[in-house]
Design goal:
Blueprint (H helix, E strand, L loop, with lengths): L1 H22 L4 E4 L7 E5 L8 H5 L11 E4 L7 H11 L1 E4 L4 E4 L3 E4 L7 H4 L6 H4 L3 H9 L8 E3 L16 H19 L6 E6 L1 H11 L3 H7 E7 L8 H8 L10 H10 L1 H5 L14 E3 L3 E2 L4 H7 L6 H12 L9 E7 L3 E7 L9 E5 L7 H4 L1 H5 L9 E7 L10 H16 L2 H6 L1
Parallel strand pairs: 1-7, 1-8, 8-9, 9-12, 10-13, 12-15
Antiparallel strand pairs: 2-3, 2-6, 4-5, 10-11, 13-14
Helix pairs in contact: 3-11, 7-8, 10-11, 13-14
The structure holds 2-acetamido-2-deoxy-beta-D-glucopyranose (3 copies).
The site of one 2-acetamido-2-deoxy-beta-D-glucopyranose has 5 residues, from loops.
InterPro entries: AB_hydrolase_fold, LACT/PDAT_acylTrfase
Protein name: Lecithin-cholesterol acyltransferase-like 1
Keywords: Signal
Length: 430
Amino acid sequence: MKGVAVVFGLTGLMMMMIVCSCSKLHPIILVPGSGGNQLEARLTEAYKPSSLVCNSWFPIPKGGGGWFRLWFDPSVLIAPFTKCFADRMTLYYDLHKDDYFNCPGVQTRVPHFGSTRSLLYLDPKLKHITSYMADLVDSLEQEGYKEGETLFGAPYDFRYGLAAAGHPSSTGSKFLEDLKGLIEMASKSNGGSPVIILSHSLGGLFVLQLLNRNPLSWRHKYIKHFISLSAPWGGTIQEMLTFASGYSLGVPLVDPRLVREEQRSSESNLWLLPSPKLFHPNRSLVITEKRNYSAHDIPQFLEDIGFPQGVHPYRTRILPLVNNLTAPEVPLTCIVGSGIKTPETLFYVDREFDEQPEVLFGDGDGTVNLISLLAVELEWNGIAAKQPLKVIRIPRVSHTSILKDSVAIAEIVGEISTINSQVEVLRSVV
Ligand SMILES: *[C@@H]1O[C@H](CO)[C@@H](O)[C@H](O)[C@H]1NC(C)=O
Ligand SMILES: *[C@@H]1O[C@H](CO)[C@@H](O)[C@H](O)[C@H]1NC(C)=O
Ligand SMILES: *[C@@H]1O[C@H](CO)[C@@H](O)[C@H](O)[C@H]1NC(C)=O
């Protein structure tokens, strides 16, 4: 009888192990960065095109109800169409309503919320050049993750941001509500297992806000771990270049001045300006003949580059938001690239803001300065008991190659396996 009991015991143990290894995966929710998912648009009667070309031109094919893919479509790279694209992407700030809206006549929507579909490739017909999270998702699937069961995506309209308490931000707040619902659904459909949130870039700022805007009890119930890739916690100096001179989307064919107005109009771009909390007032980020600008001079900078409309929303809605990096009190792993030359000082000494500046580079991931990638390490130094934080630095990996590079993907997947193998009991003991 004893022998049988041992056999039963072993069988029971083995069965438990099997059950564990199948159900051990905490569901993952992917939150992309700016420009990291598709956006669709349609035009109504109220649409006022800036040129005749834009009146009749659409990326083809237009689907049901007149919806077409606004981001990303390769025609954006061809000059007359770049302008149409920029017009349709432009937001405006309504002073009376204190909120951001699409231009009149342009309706937009985010396809496939809940799924990874719109994050894999920005244009499914041009997989090779527009691949975004496809490689990462492949690797997660090899670990046993399944789309719609344990793996979910939270695309959003990345032109919009969030605002400090007391200011409406209808589009960004709606996204946070949807994301919250998705987290709860993913957890419930996985037997109550708390989720791992895996964000890239701007997505990390949204997730931090989501966490801090929900009670600690909610966070502990639903969030196992937050992994942020390349999060610009304190903004980027490159964003000042974007506001001053326009940024060519990294595509040499695009004239940055054609997209500058649109880029200035984006609420999330204001959010990504370098934070005065992080960049000391004695640090000149933009140098001109007349004066220099630190992160503390951004309102004056916006005036001087010819974008005074940005000053009020920046001061009232954005500044209090970026000055507040409250710890979410859920375990956080920041995975960042470094050792890539990243804009650090912009020289407009012998030129206007319309022209591209001379750039002095420093350390970072090519887009985000290292000091910003590591800002939470500094900020939450000394509260380790309350805020578990791990930082993984990957040399020579850029802001977006972190989603493709094999070493980076191995680090991300390794971190997820570690989290999945943690015994649940530890959580309540710690
Ligand atoms: C900072 O954010 C936290 C969480 O959202 C909030 O509770 C706190 O009141 C904010 N602090 C300030 C000074 O706005
Ligand atoms: C700027 O201020 C920081 C912090 O007070 C200080 O460590 C640094 O030496 C200053 N740099 C210059 C150039 O004054
Ligand atoms: C701006 O900064 C440069 C370089 O640090 C310095 O040489 C120059 O004197 C500064 N200009 C003004 C107006 O402060």
